[in-house]
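Section: Multi-chain targets

For targets with more than one molecule, the full set of components is provided together so that the structure can be written out for the assembly as a whole rather than chain by chain. Components appear in the order listed by the source. The example entry contains two components.
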Amino acid sequence: MTPALADRLSRAVVGCYPPRWKQRYAAELLDVLDQHRAGPRTVLSLAGGALSTHLDPDYRMQIRLKPHLSRDAKLYIAIFAAIIVGVPALVILPMIPRAIRESRWEPSSSGSVGAIAFSRDQRIMVSATGGPPWEATSTLWDLTGQARPRRLSVFEGGSPATISPDGATVATNAFGGRAQVALWNVTRPRHPARLAVLSAGLSGALWGEAFSPDGRILATASTSGLVLWNVADPARPRLLRRLAAAPLPLDNSGPPVPFGVTQGDLVFSPDGRMLASVSGRDQVTVWDVARPARAARLATLAGPHDYFAALTFSPRGNLLAGVTYHGSVLVFRVAGPGRPARVSIRPGLLASARFPGGGSTQAGPCGGDCSFAAAYAAGFTPDGRALTVVVDRPEAWPSTAARDTVFTWQVTGSGDLSDVTTMFRDVNDAQPVLAPGGRILADGSLTGGEVHLWTLP
Amino acid sequence: MHGKFDGLGRFADPSLLILTSLSDGPKHGYAIMTDIAAFSGVGMEPGTLYGALSRLERRGWIRPLAAGERRRPYEITAAGQEVLAEQLRSMQQVVRVARQRTATA
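Its structure, encoded as tokens over all components, is:
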């Protein structure tokens, strides 16, 4: 740009200032330009000055749009706008299936989803994706707009992962440590900050985490046993108690658990006084944790010679339901008169469903190795009158195609199951998790790192 | 004309440079620009200068004097002198700390 051109442009730009400003300063500014050797920077500075002056309330051009429209005209415009927006909405909304609605979330990273957990108010969800559990990444999701969930942040933390009841802390498998638990402050969910790493008392592979209902206790489970931590101040966690449960019969060098074992197999009762954990090949251990530092075994409940995949307490805390890998549903009475005991069993869940269209049912080829058995989630409705069990089952190994079923039983006060209803989905997932309240179901994809969200009727 | 630290912001703040320039007596626009270039090495452009002049005048830190032809000189007010003194104290504090730390580093 030649000086002459810059000078001409500069003077033209001076004409672009607001009239009031020009009235006051233009003569002086032109005098300065007479003496100044203009260049591109001169033009840019004047253009920037003109723009900012137009935005300055003291010099802003005042544009008044006088309302020439009559009241009737405004009314007609409002009715017209309502028709334009409202009629399509009335037509489209009923077309959305009400039985089960699904949304899919973009993957935060590729690979299988190893863990999904919800906050108690269902406003936040965490998912751990990819790699071995101790080298995965966790993604924090904002569910306040369920149809359009937003990814809040991605951080280093693998499965299992769980969220404290107040939604302020997330516990994950610590990155790089197979039996270490990392606590994250997510009060600024876009910027999770690691508060502490728990490692004392843990060895082997980590397979479970659960916060107590008041959020003050964190139970962690590894192949070496259970540990209770005081996390009232999550930045300064304290080891409270080691509990020696019968170890899961798992190979420590491989994946820590078969598909489907999530934090759900380590659950606190609603009043926080009991903790139920999977133990051994076919057992559930119930712990009295009313005084966590003196926690002790309350009962050992036997299943039908099968791993327990998912556990859930009833809202009153008097019943404990469990689902096994081969598809048996059991209900135990764990509170009230008498010793804890089994009150219901529904075996053969995998064989009980008949798919629409006459498709045959085929249970996963579990055999002696349950690595590819079906995966489960279980949850009571808030009133405790229904038990929902979600099955993600592989149709035929090694295919990962799944034929998935949602069973819902009516539950009596004493724990008897009746009137089962079934719903079918057809997805390729293997990590179902029911949100608190039992109406939102999340599935973790086997590949691609996707999380799928379903609203149950 | 343009120092390598132009981007530092506060130390090359146009308002501070203008108040400093006017602290030894009234000057008109072009005289302010040449004075600033002489004592600071900052080549202030007319758009920047008059943007800052209008803000300083509105805040009462400078005031215009009677214009001669197209040139209007400006002088610093008592309030402007106070602001400048406060700014200089702050900068001196920064300089003092920086010197101490670089000396011990």
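The interface with chain B takes residues 10, 13, 21, 24-25, 27-33, 35-36, 41-42, 44-50, 52-53, 58 of chain A (CB under 8 Å).
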